[in-house]
Amino acid sequence: MTADRTIGKYVITEILGRGGYSNVYRGTHASLNMPVAIKMLNHDMAMDPEFSEKFRNEAKTIARLNHENIIKVYDIEELYRTIFIIMEFLEGVPLDYVMEKMERLPPRRVLDIVLQLCAGLAYAHENGIVHQDIKPGNIFIQPDYRAKIVDFGLAVRPGTVDDLCWPGSVLYAPPEKIQGDPVDERSDIYALGITTYEMVTGQRPFVGNDPSEVMSLHVNKDVPDPRRSIPDLPEELSHFILRATKRDPSERYDNVPQILNELQPLAQQMGLMRHLQVKEQRKMMSLFLFYQDEHQLTLKRLVEEFTNELKKIGADIRAADFKDI
pTM of the predicted model, to two decimals? Predict the structure, then answer.
């Protein structure tokens, strides 16, 4: 893909990164001059109908979500025999880049990131989505330290059995996924726990010579207490890491709000005042209908039909009469 290639309403200007199945470009909305990120499915993967459908589903999945800690999807285009996902352009760097530059992150910064990720995950889980690939490379840190969850390419419904796992993802994969068992919200909690361990210690709990060795360690070994290497780590963070990474899902937190409730006292103690959006935010739009008296009955019928369709997606409509407009 060359620079200044037009993708529908968007113009690609430069490449930002290359991945195992897709490339990400910087672009702009041609008429609004708004910066965007454009994720293109690699052509060899686009030839696989099953994988192409999974890529489309990624766009549809994120497009349904509206949360400050989850990347936004604006559009999807299918051109040049492949698929493009148009997303918000994020200023900042991935968490793995931050961790490369720092030996380990201070506990206060770690807690701030963890709470934000919990808010985003709680929202995704509430909407029936398991991310299934939480890791530093899929967490974006903006200049104001806001954390965003990106890359929902492996996202599934709770209870799904999915054996698709990229080499970089096995470093954070829960035992149940490795063993071919169904995944759910607790699978994301495990990956978040592994990621947090890496943030506070500067190293991963399990390191092997190849992916199969790492997977075996996840299944057969307990995550060590991070306070062995970081004695001054707050007990609350250590307890979170150890419980989140239990090999048996039933011994982990049942859900993400439990984690938020448990860590909030520590956040207050550390002076973290960031507002967290956990519940879905409702939006409102205005629609004005101008009509003649003779069309009132027809309009009423159409509004009733429209209202019934809106109820199917959980939306409400409120009507008011304005006289002599």
Answer: 0.81
